[in-house]
Sequence to fold (294 residues):
Amino acid sequence: KRLREEAFLKNGLGEINMCRLIRDGEYGEDITKILVSEKVIKKLQERNIQGLEYLKYKENYHITISQNQVSTDVMVNDKKEESKMDNSNVHVWQSEGVKDDVFDGGIDEPRPISPSIFKQYKPVKQAYLEWREFKGVKTALLGSHDDKEFVDECKRTVRWVEKGCFDPIGYHLYYREYLSQDVLCVSNFVPCVSQKVVDILQEVCPEEIEIFRVSLNYETDKKYYVINLTRGIRKDVFMKNGLGVIHFSRLIKGEQDDENTSKILVSEKLIKKFKEANIQGLEYLKFGENPYAF
Fold:
């Protein structure tokens, strides 16, 4: 069940025992706290349930969220101390190719599908439904948008999602020699990686990603994938508390920020795994040291 914040603040839980608290956010409904009734809490305490912090509403500043939503504070698990990690060893995801000004589809190439569905820190199929409600997308799909390339991009995106997201996404790679790398720069907004990187991500943070096959304009025996990140963390929260137990996340604007950011944050654990595996094509830049990321 879900309960709107204004209704909860006015009337409490009523007869509900466990539900998500929702409120209006920038991209629609922003799912935050999970509320638990006094009755359920008593049962949990009677049975000596371990691993749960018994925090009353307003005291619970460590907010547990669903895997596909934005954190208004740090993700926590049963160990409090893990939510107190700082950001000194957090890195920013960046491929080496970004210095060569390689953008989505290349400067003269159309984007294969809309990168917007990969920038919402949600599963693609959920992000797609919200993307279709964007004003520009609605106009394009109705055929009344002036930008023909954008109209075609929107139509390609619809076909790709409605066919189950199974078709490889076609990206343009400028230089064949990049195929020796594990991290490609085919987009400023979407990580594109080899099977080697995918294996590490699935080992460390499988619940934080979705993967989709890629086809390139050069033939190669290597398999590449784009990564959709299903978690986001607000900038002000990250600056205060670090990543917490998150390993791979989009950084989104905080309450005091005017502009969004396209930065992707990478935990120290992931970076160690990448270095141990000799992952090529990734710049190992710590947060704050990255002159290229916007």
Helices lie at 5-11, 38-46, 124-131, 135-141, 148-162, 195-204, 235-241, 268-276. The longest strand covers residues 28-36. Residues 25-30, 59-85, 100-108 have pLDDT under 50 and may be disordered.
